[in-house]
């Protein structure tokens, strides 16, 4: 066991009450994904502040012997909401665990996700077509899951290294995007979303932390 147990106690007191609970206590949404539980039980869970890109004892080698994106996604607490979403989307988790596919993960800060006018799995068109119960029942869960998958994939660029100015498309998304330095800050274009930092560089890609979310609908 790694000394994560201590962090878990801390998390259950701090993160779940301040971050997760408000986000997932939407009465319209039956929380079939159990984000909180997964986050608390994640063995690679967000540990104490670790300098970005520093070697960490939490970086456990994958089957290939290299550290992969799946090993480090849970490392930075400031993006643990997004990391939880990724865990809920099996195809996304698999990709980040795949040594043969590189990915640039554009992980929005928790604060950016919390500031959204709606939850990442909510689509106004669903409410328009189906009313306030759009996400209830089995069909509703599936619908929410589909929407969440679209959100997660819109934040995964199937390419790394990703050179400055090089056109790319996120998974399942038609919009051409690229990044450039603007006044000393890396920004994702054309939306101009600031990259706060490059949190991890591992064998199958990088995790970039974003100040905002992509328009994914
Ligand atoms: C994947 O990333 C690794 C490590 O950054 C790099 O050496 C390799 O060339 C990349 N592969 C592709 C296909 O871009």
TrEMBL record:
Annotated Pro residues bias: 45-60
Recorded superkingdom: Eukaryota
UniProt organism field: Echria macrotheca
Keyword annotations of the record: Signal
Organism lineage: Eukaryota, Fungi, Dikarya, Ascomycota, Pezizomycotina
Protein name stated in the entry: FAS1 domain-containing protein
Region (Disordered): 34-70
Alphabetical list of SUPFAM superfamilies matching this protein: FAS1 domain
Entry annotated with the keyword Signal: yes
Signal peptide extent: 1-17
Coiled coil spans: none
